[in-house]
Amino acid sequence: MIEIKSKREIELMREAGKVLAEVHEKLGEKVAPGLSTGELNDYAEGIIRKAGCTPSFLHLYDFPAACCISVNEEVIHGIPDRHRILKEGDIVSFDIGTCYHGYHSDAARTWPVGQCTEEAKRLLRVCEESFWKGIENAVPGNHLNDICGAIGDYANSMGFGVLEDYVGHGIGHEVHMDPEVPNFRMKRKGPRLQAGMTLAVEPMITEGTKEVRVLDNDWTVVTLDGKLSAHYENTILITDNGPEVLSLRKG
Q1: Residue 91 in contact with residue 120, Cβ under 8 Å?
Q2: Least enclosed by CB within 10 Å: which of 22, 88, 190, 199?
Q3: b/e 81-107 (16+ beta carbons within 10 angstroms → b)
Q4: What is the CA radius of gyration of the chain?
Q5: Domain 7-241 adopts which CATH fold?
Q6: Are 21 and 70 in contact (CB under 8 A)?
Q7: Strand partners, 234
């Protein structure tokens, strides 16, 4: 069942999203060679708690950290580690959730560490662009597949792989709710979009194959061919005036 959020629920999600936008902005400024993913996790958690939120992912399904931090071929669910040191030329993805009075926001960004290759920069750019291509269609009366198809069609047209094993989702008083939001064109229209729906839309694209595997830690998902991947996500609200991105700073 897909929930339609009340005005109160939307305001709580806006607050969670505002904090999450700040966390990502500050992480983007801080990322540099020589830092560990463990340090960056602690830094982000400190910002979240100081702002009056709690980290949505900490202990969710027994995940051991506040942030998923994934490097290079790691697509999602990287576990922060003080021994994992970022190097010049890496790319690093932060997938983070914030909870404010019981309501969640979920967003991901992928950043270059120092100077990365032109192809890596293009991967990051297309991943973000595919998100915006998708949510152009996030309007009442359209169907979910209008979002999903636009994401996948664009990323594929630019020569990148699109994960099919992991998808976006509805969000609200739980992190993961109905509906699933794939990043590829489905064989069905999916539910009709209505004002008041909140979705976590999250393109995950790769330099090469879309095929992935899970490491022995039972969490971290990596590309099967070892090539780079990128992740870009925001929590959006569907309104009668078009989509509102709740996890970006306004203005």
Answers
A1: yes
A2: 88
A3: eeebebeeebbbbbbbbbbbeebbbbb
A4: 17
A5: Creatine Amidinohydrolase (3.90.230)
A6: no
A7: 201
Query: Which residues of the chain fall short of a pLDDT of 70?
Result: 251
Distance CA 221, CA 219 (A): 6
Q: Which of 97, 74, 98, 75 is nearest to 84 (CA)?
A: 74
Tokens of 164: 């099919």
Going by C-beta distance under 8 Å and a sequence separation of 6 or more, which residues neighbour residue 143? 189, 190, 191, 192, 193
Domain positions in the chain = 7-241
DSSP assignment of 32-68: -TT-BHHHHHHHHHHHHHHTT-EETTTTGGG--SSEE
Neighbours of 22 (CB within 10 A): 15
Instruction: Judge whether 225 and 76 are in contact, CB under 8 Å.
Output: no
Question: Which residue in the block uniquely carries the two structure tokens 């009668």?
Answer: 240
Helices then strands, counting H and E runs in the chain, come out as 4, 15
| Measured distance CA(128)–CA(230) in Å, rounded | 9
